[in-house]
Fold these 4 entries.
Entry 1:
Amino acid sequence: MLELATDALTVALTAAGLVFFLAGTVGLIRFPDTFSRLHALTKADNLGLGFIVLGLALQAESWHAVFKLGLIWALALVAAGTAAQLVARTALRADEGGRPTRQAEGRE
Amino acid sequence: MSGTVFDIVLCALILGAALAAVSGRDPFAAVVFFVVYGVFIATAWLRLDAVNVALAEAAIGAGLTGVLLLGAVGRLARLRETAPPARAAGPRLLAALAAGGTTLLLGWVFLTLPEPAGLHAEVGANLAAAGSENAVTAVLLNFRAWDTLLESIVLLAALIGIWALSPDAAWGGRPGMTQRTRAGGVLAQFGRVLPPIGLMVGVYLVWAGTKQPGGAFQGGTVLAAVALLAMMAGRIAPPRVSAPGLRLALILGPAVFLAVGLAALAAGRFLWLPPEHAYALILGIEAALTVSIAATLALMVIGPPQEAP
Amino acid sequence: MIGSATLYGLCGAALVGIGLYGFVSHPGLLRRVLAFNVIGSGIFLIFGAAGYRDADAGADPVPQALIITGIVVALSLTALAVALIVAHVRASGHGELPEDAGE
């Protein structure tokens, strides 16, 4: 009984994750400019991955595996956030005219 | 059944991404498709039960090759490369026919291969004396150590070739360009958060490589990626190619490997690992190789020195 | 029903064809390097799939080790080729070979 419940929850969570991935992908293709595309991509994909990780964590055999899944999600969040920020900054510079330049503020 | 459906969909995705990568107009988009293609191929390796290869493909085939090609696209765009003229339709058709013929031939050969014999049994029988429970690591570091030793020297030779392309004035300088990022900015923070985790993952992949999927090449690639990230985020400057420490790191792996091989030669056979010491020797060779692989791969991706020292 | 090994083996054969077409038909040097990598991974896939035809025995470790070696050598070659291309473009201003530049 409990097994059936966790299985059902896994299916529901991964399905929710897939919906977010689909929405993000549609947004990426359909939205008009870089910033709204980024919005669709990062928000939806991060949530989508989160739901899928949650769903898979319910099936994990050990806390060890749950921790690894969580680590994957956290790293993907950090990487996606950073990449989105950099893409947005480059796009902003390109909009302001001229080719994007690198931030120059002294060496450390 | 659902496995077959998955395989068919994955094969279609692989072929679609490959087509987009080789035939698209925009070079940047082509490289992005190539990276996506690499991730699909890595998934295919998982389906073929080859986790070691999947790790190598994801880290090297998709990751480092992607960074390398993206960097090249950027460099060529700055050099204002003129767009090459497109081929005429006639030769293109001819090329398509020849390529199609090659595919048919290869497919036919694959389908008519003799019954699988394989080397599972031989590897399995000798695994206990190999010093590694991971059969792939055992093959790489013990049964076919020649390949791996020469491979580590090929890496070094390629790096020397790349360095040879540096302008005379820049020889001995730092490869690539020193990156400057805003202190406290997003990229700088990222360069602070990720390296410790990446270091841990890289070392773990090497350490676990004798028991689970992983090994010197996968771990070394992760460490190279960490070094590249730290350089891109402006945390560390690329080392001078003439620095003695760097040179030592580059030859450490092949040198240790060769020394072990020669010591074995004194005891009887070149590159033979005595079973009672095989585990320790493999771990030692892998540790040294990892340092060299990480340094070589990172420097290959940055390219030859461009600034005067 | 087609097994995984057969499917990926044929997929590898198709990749060799796609890569070969790109390699021959595109004059841009960087694209040729990319196509060359597609050919390479197609060959790896054929090789790896051939080592997995006996699925009960699992994946044959010897092809796996050789493929890992191949992937690393392919990266070395790609890196050297990219450095050569950048040097070529810097010297000549063209991203293709002289015999491909004209008609």
Entry 2:
Amino acid sequence: MKEKDYVMVLVPGSCIDCKACTVACKAQNKVPLGEECFRTEILEGEKIESGQVRGINFMPLLCFHCENAACITVCPTSASYHNEDGMVLVDPDRCIGCRMCMLACPYNARYYNEHEGVVDKCTFCVERLKADMKPACASTCPTEARVFGDLNDKNSEVYKLLHQKAKKVWQPKANMLGVKPRVYYVEV
Amino acid sequence: MEISRRGFLKGAAIGVAASYPLFFKQKAHAGILSSFGVPEPGKYPEIKPFKPKVTHNWCEMCFWGCGIDVFTENGRVRKIEGNPYHPYNYGKVCARGNAGVMLLYDPDRLKTPLKRVGERGEGKWEKISWDEAISTVAKEMTAIKGKYGAKALAIVPHGTAGHAAKRLFDAMGAKNSAEPSYSSCRASRLLGWFGTYGKDLSSHEYYDIANSKYILLVGRNIAESVMMGDAKNLGIALSKHAKIIYVDPRFTKTAAKADEWLPIKPGTDMAFVLALINVIIKDALYNADFIENYCYGFYELREHIEKYTPEWAEKETDIPATTIKKIAWELARYAPSSVVIPARRTSRYGDDTQNARAIAILNALLGNWEMPGGYYHTTKIKAPKAPLPKPPKIRNFQRADNCGKGSDFPLAPASFGRTNGLVKAIAEQKPYPIKSLFVCGANPVMNVAKPGETLKKAIENLDFIVTVDVYPTEMCLYSDIILPASTYLEKYGDLKAGGAIQPFIAYREPAVKPLYDTKGEWEICRMIAKKMGLEEYFPMSMKEIVEYKISKLSLEEQKELKKNGVIVKEGDPYRRAQGKKIRFSTPTGKVELYSTLFKKHGYDPLPVYSRPASPPEGSYRFLFGRVSVHTHARTENNSWLHETYPVNKLWINKDEAGMLGIKNGDKVVLVQGNKKSPSIETYVTSRIRKNCVFIAHGFGGFSPFLTLCYEKGVLDGEFASEAVDPISGAYAYHKDSFVKIKKA
């Protein structure tokens, strides 16, 4: 077992789509400007019944840091890799910008950084983790719709959410593809 | 085919994802690629821990004032993070707060003092030195003061930037000051609450939704007009499954989080609230103990409210009578942990003060005052004082803005002033000539009603206009001298004492040196004061003031402030719940269901409903409001926020649009009389009810120097009404403000 089992638990029911996470991520990770340049975003789904809006769901999205990561499998230069904590990272020196990983990713979690000619993605803010800080998005989320922590720690909020508080836990497409993501969605 | 755009992938990725892994096996390729100079697998770069330098500050991307920690690396601000100790935000910052970095590094910022060389509005400027700029300002204002008196010098201040400017004008004996936040925003709610509880419900609101079991939001778009303290508490309420009812003509993001959305007919909120009061009284659902001990005028209210039945309200509001009854019973069931929250911006229909009164009364009947889940008590705290002399008191100053004692709006506090009154006074040069305007931290062009008419006329009457700002705003286009201010990340700020559920004192220190030839507002005003011979009122620099005040704190407090960026004390939020006796600062010392203050001033002592005019055939009521990522008209040029929400669109109901033959994304224009808007894209949706249209505030700016937001969208003010609330004197922007929609 790994010493740390970092996961992100997303609570869409608490997300107010304020975009604090997206902007915090831009700052922390020097993500360039551009509509398609983001490491995390919030998707919106309208519930329409008989032509009338009945609800809107907000679904935060980021890299799922899959254990069986399709992006790593397809990368011809081994630029995509798992670090010691199991996070999926890109080594920009190895990346040749072929974008195969973007096609392979089932979650549309990657983008192409035109300025540097490499593919970039969420790292769970690995440089912050090394300084004992939470990822920027989880740290700034006002409604605690993004909860980050170590699943090996039974006192952590992520453990409590997944094992005690959650009424429902799901991981989109995970079963179909067998990718074993590190990101969970819960309903509390 | 080039596969580069993520947008393309959004559609394609899912389909091909499963098949690609079969064709590529990374290990098979590694050997081949190493011969091309690609490094061997297994050796990856070491990632260093994030260890920035931290400075303490409070955010000024909006006016809420969240505590922030500013992270710099190699002398450059990289990240802004919420201060975890600060009671306004407990470690959280919104999109705007996070984007403060891009305010600092916005290449469009004002960089030096400027002098107008072309016509007003033309935007032809010449760079000048600070010395020339300050000398000109001092000379011109002294000349106008000499010719017309100090009252001919007007000022529009906003935020902490405005405090220094107000002090300067107080020192000159010039009291014609008006803050936009009063008339454009919170005035009516402030007075409605004051008339009931003797305490205003200004920023920062003291509702305790983290502990509420039932939350009724009457137009309070809490998820989009977002403040971090509120948002955090909303998150707690959501996680505890508090029931949330949201009343708004639009299905906003708040509606998305609510259990029920009530698409009310615009302008009829008061009818809805009065009917709730009716049911609560008729069905004896009120807190009899609280009314007995703490309220004044229950019998008058009972009699007054009789005619406002749910069946009557259904016809006014389009909310079914059964729903109104159900909500009244639910409010009572969860009382005192149920709470009714008014909108934040209450400059709407001209009955806003009385509407706020109605909401205040409804809360009183629930007995939620100073109870968990209701409205809590804010404990006050004071920062130490610096030895600054008080500006001279001016007795019997006749204000130009028709505000305060002796005016048509005697309850409107002169300490705020009415911007709408001031602009009108300048436009008409009545009751006396006003010849100079000093704007500090505000942009009236973007927040007054009918800027192209009334404000334009006012500007024509002014001999001298000065604007102090970070950005070359629309107001700068009309200014004779422009003084560039430093951002909050580049300057010291006066200690900020405040009270949320816990009282606190916060600290601001610069994260970086000013990037350009800019100065803090205090230093700018100090220079002007010196030139005008008023230096005694500005004896210290802001840095000296902050250092002096800190030296007067106890050693322990000093340590806490330097370490955490904020001193936090314990509050006493639920005094009533603890059985403590409380007194209200109303004339009767009680919660005035029947307002003796309003009665004394000739206003209805109990809220009386009158039906708003309906849009004429073929017209729509014109609504505007906030989005989560922008503050007023201040952040539209911020690149991170701009890309998140670059332009406003016209919300129109899909059935209405269908009848007009308008499709989603079509270009249309707004027409009002002879006035036509620039073209705007439609958002055709069922998220807005019929008979009204909506655009987001802050767009339609026309300063070509703000390169990102220049001529993006439509300026709401042009189509807003200049009507006023008869009690607060604030704008009633939506009163009789109708537009027609035509294809562009």
Entry 3:
Amino acid sequence: MNTNGNIYTVVYSTIIVVLVAAILAFASSALKPMQDANIKAETISQMLDAAGIQAKDVPTTNEQILDKYAETVEEAFVVNIEGQKVSELSIARANIELIDNLKAQNAKLKDEALLPVYKFKNGKTVVPIYGAGLWGPVWGYIAFNDDLKTIAGAYFDHASETPGLGAKIKDDPAFRALFQGKAADFTQEPAFAIVKGAAKDNEVDAITGATMTSKGLSAAIAAWLKAYAPYFINNAPKAEEPVSEPEAETTEE
Amino acid sequence: MDAKIKETLLNPIFKGNPITVLVLGICSSLAVTVELKGALVMSLSVIIVTGLANFILSLLRNTIPMRVRIIVQLVVVAMLVILVDEILKAFAYPVEKQLSVYIGLIITNCIVMGRIEAFALGNKPFASLLDGLANGAGYGLILVIVAFFRELLGSGTLLGARIIPESFYEAGYMNNGLVILPPMALILIGCIIWVQRSLQKDLQEK
């Protein structure tokens, strides 16, 4: 047979491409459940790290991560941008629900985004952030203490930031540690910022050599905290009754 | 026949190593050798992809229209790479997250295309499969050697486990930051090529 004729070439190419497409489509749908389970466990482990329950780099299986979450979470629900609770997320071990399509929520952050709030039994409230870094998306989880102001911890991740520079938002524990003890000011805009030469309580230092990643992460945090601001302001404990402030010792008069 | 199979299998490991002798696949060997674990997974992926790509294209070799053969090769290689990526995503998610960019780059790894053009299109499927596996292994061997030194000297660990004891650090020993960066990988590969050329006189130019 003449394998160099035009008709043969066209038919051959078509068959190969359709065959390959079919194989890939089959593999993709067959492996999807396992991949989704991995992504879910990854998301939860980032929250647990931010809330200070279990460090992310401790090797664990997906099952252990889900167990840990079911054990330590108190409630999870969705609020709208007015700060009202719109629905509950199941926290039962058999059916853990998350809002993990942050990209989709980010697109409608100004009006009808579903904003998840995860409250843990250790008093921490964890919320996600999502935005654009230099090369691709950056996202993460920020944990607040029960005064809903002070940051207890943060975990950030990225798709393709530069290793050694922008990737430090994830790889450098020292950068993440900067967030601990800082406090977001929800009455301001931005409520929290990553800047050069941080001076205020709601600022941390940017990463040297990763200006664009730092700016992107800062914008992501600002945009998401702005969306969460009504919820945080409405639900923050009143200033007259300080919750658990070790410095506030006014008993001796 | 037996000797020929042996030759196909052993030649790419040392005498005709794709990295040190053919100087193919250098970019990815600089990128994925910071840690031993990443290098091992990358090696395994490349072995599977080169082996299967050689096998499949050798089966098809008499039917492929000459004018579109590169495109047909690319389609098959791309399919295998995406399959490897999807399988890693399902069964080794943390590794996939770390390597995803480089796994995609296997498609452009010169070794894969090079072996298809040079071997698979002119040989029987079984011999091509062996040739692909052996070339992948030759690539992997260099990767693992480089990654061994880079992880040991750069981070003081192997496969994530601490090798250099804390007491060394207290005595003033420090990890070498340069080893973490790609230039040092190139220097290490240079050293390996140097050693190989001094052992194997026929590689030296007159």
Entry 4:
Amino acid sequence: MTGSERVIVMKIELLETSKSYGSKQALKSVSTTIEPNKIVGLLGRNGAGKTTMLQILAGHIKPSDGRVLINGLEPFNNRKALQHICLISEANNFKRKLKIREVLKTVSRFYPNWSQETAERLLKTFNLDPGMSAKGLSKGMESALSITIGLSSHTSITIFDEPYIGMDASARYKFYDVLLEEYESYPRTFIISTHLIDEVSSLFEEIILMKEGKILTHESAEELKLKSLQISGPRAKVDDFIEGRQVIHAAEIMGQKTALLYGEGLDLNKAKAMGLLTERSSIQELMVHLTEKEEKLYV
Amino acid sequence: MDEKLRDDIPIFQQIAETIESGILEGSYSIGDRVPSTNEFAKFYQINPATAAKGINQLVEQEILFKKRGIGMFVGDNARNIILSKRKERFYHDYVVPLRTEAARLGISEDELNDWIRKGDRDEN
């Protein structure tokens, strides 16, 4: 970080934002606020509206209805806001005709806080040769280059939409490491949408869970975890405990019942005292059950 | 240090317990600096705010103390505070479930006491 660089703190507000593609409503009047300098996980099934929401946040598309404000400014077609936002998509983040070195040079012009030092360090981390043509990159290398662009942009809001298609586990863990290093040395807002929830969920301070174009919940990752409790034991005891609570999943075999509960004030010790086996479920399990199609909305 | 984090208890609590265990086992003595928020974050690949929450909990309990701009250090009375906390938890985590399961299996008081006495010898 050089002396001239300044972290510009940026708050994101979505105000009843909607987006339709023809008759399909991809985003249905979504409202939320993302406070600056947090790592936020955006989760949901395919088609839940994640990419649409990210593209609206990043000013790539315009909402059909409602507004999005980045520090009070609408980002669409607004250079003043856009230079502080970098969206890395699943693919096509750069021109394939160029060499890696040229790709970085081209994108660096968009971002006033671009760090060439970070870019060069990350190329080494991911074993990418700056002289290599972007055309010859494998899927995993392409993702690594995209990630390098996102982290080097040093934008106040850096968004990764399914950033690591084709990257193997070891490259992904390198990504998590450099993400944390970058977050430490240059704090900013990171929004990451991913399917590999188990792997990354502990990196998130907050989680936004989407379903069918709406935000199901937006809260701290820790609180979300405390809102779930899986209990198992004899059916009668389990039924006793779950009465009046929200059950998002239940299964039974040989008189033993397992139930996944969701909601406030689930007391793990109380369940234990009743002789039930308890477990907190992972964010991944919670996501799967909460976004189950046939379930009613519980939030 | 345990390298893997568990799913069943909050991560910040696991960070706090890792530090406590380090102190109990003698890896960290009074006045030693413990790893920073960012060191924990990188080691476990977790959000720094989560690591900070675990560390701050220990500061509140006077197990650690903060030297501004330098880091977190082990407090004078850390070991005793941790021991009394752990003893209390031992009762809830081991004794209560032990008796519950014993009752379910119809194990008598005498049998149970017998086993507790000799369990230690069997292990060694």
